[in-house]
Structures are given as structure tokens and as C-alpha cells.
Amino acid sequence: MQGVKKQHLPSKTCPICNRPFAWRKKWEKNWDQIIYCGEKCRRSK
């Protein structure tokens, strides 16, 4: 993902808050397993 502008990053929608969230460098290796946008949504599933 090096050299990609922020508006062209992949994104997903959180099933809890229905907000879109974008790819992050720390999620590079497990982007397919990421479901929730953050810790708060993950805990309230």
C-alpha cells in the first residue's frame, strides 16, 4: 500500500455504528479479519 493517497485506501463499514473506516498500516497483515472500526464497537457486539 505504499504510495497510495488516503482517498484511494480500501475501506469497510462497521456493523455496529454503520460508519466507514479506512485501511490502517497496523492492519496491513490482517485486513481481511478486521470487522469493527474500534475497540468500543468490538466490545459492544
Automatic annotation (TrEMBL):
It comes from the Bacteria. This is DUF2256 domain-containing protein. It comes from Aquirufa antheringensis. InterPro entries: UCP037205.
